[in-house]
Sodium:solute symporter
Amino acid sequence: MAVDYTVIVVYLAGMLAMGWWGMRRAKSKSEFLVAGRRLGPWMYSGTMAAIVLGGASTIGGVGLGYQYGLSGAWMVFTIGLGLLALSVFFSARIARLKVYTVSEMLDLRYGGRAGVISGVVMWAYTLMLAVTSTIAYATIFDVLFDMNRTIAIILGGSIVVAYSTLGGMWSITLTDMVQFVVKTIGVLLLLLPIAVVKAGGFSEMKAKLPTEYFDPLGIGGETIFTYVLIYTFGMLIGQDIWQRVFTARSDKVARYGGTVAGTYCLVYAVAGAVIGTAAKVMYPKLPSADAAFATIVKDELPMGVRGLVLAAALAAVMSTSSGALIACATVANNDIWSRLRGAVSPKGDDEAHDEVKGNRLFILIMGIAVICIAIALNDVVQALTVAYNLLVAGLLVPILGGLLWKRGTAPGALAAVTAGGLSVIGLMWWYGILANEPVYYGLLISLGVYVVVSLATKPTDAQVLAAWRERLAGRGSEEAEPETPVTV
């Protein structure tokens, strides 16, 4: 395993080096939080694909393939569909707003009264997303070094917190680009063909497995619908995804680069399901479906290649973890803390260098909190389900309503966030956290309340809507444009 260990250690050292390099570039709030809004199409596509394809998409995607066959691709497939929908229909408008958070968009659209409540909901979502990603380090380091769970979480989490704190979005962008390349080579170009060959090819796989393993709808229509509702819609409104959209150099980069990333996700989804199906042929009686990825890597790959594929899994986890961490810290500082204390810098965003220190401090604080919660938390699936249910039921309607329906009002948005959030919590208590009904009914309640309250209240002020349209058109922002675009 010495060669494998060397590959992993070099990879981790490289991540820290990227953090140090990013620190030299992140001299303003814009540079620190959104990489100066100057990423070109290739770098934007790679980093966007990296953040959405995390440990759940890699280890969990292979596990679903092991359990359900080719239809196990649907979870990751719906993530890709959500990213495609965001890129094609909304990303250009989002990029032109020149904001930092989803709550700032809601304030612009509704007149400045939706920020704190929506910020709390978004903060809870990004916090749980970061926690569940951090927990995944335990699985990977256990395979690598037979390491204690707590030590594994501290080690993996500390590396992500370190490079994220040092350079903010620049460090995360550079590391995510490396992680994208490592995932592509490790999972798509190495693990996928090797797994199929080791399983005897597709003909042997079909001969040894039940026919439902090759039914594209075998996982069940209700499950697919739930995936669409949670993951596809979740991609449309998550702070971690929007913050990447904000890094695009132009609205065209956001649209076309995101489309490339979404298409990549669809391919990755199918690859994970095929790898899991191959693992079922080779190891029909594993104790857990989620053990399929680690087992096939540990037992079937040659040294060196094994280290690279495990680095790919580590890359998947780190990209999601770092993206969720900076999103969580950005929301905590800009949407909650700054509003509660009522402090507004008199300088422009790019001149208020002290804001970089403030955001860096919040990443450090949130990172320590994430590591502590990850150590204490055992049920990852329940935590992630609560986070996505709150996000979709609480924020989907006000956000999409603000983008698509000019009659939506601030009282309607606040009522929708409150009613959707409270109802989904109550329904999870009634039906169970993992039930599908809470997000179904919570979303319907949020939609009904939004429409009724908006129609029953005074329309949004004409000046607010006029300012909103100016920002959507790419005008009206006081933020300085970047001087030198990054075209990679």
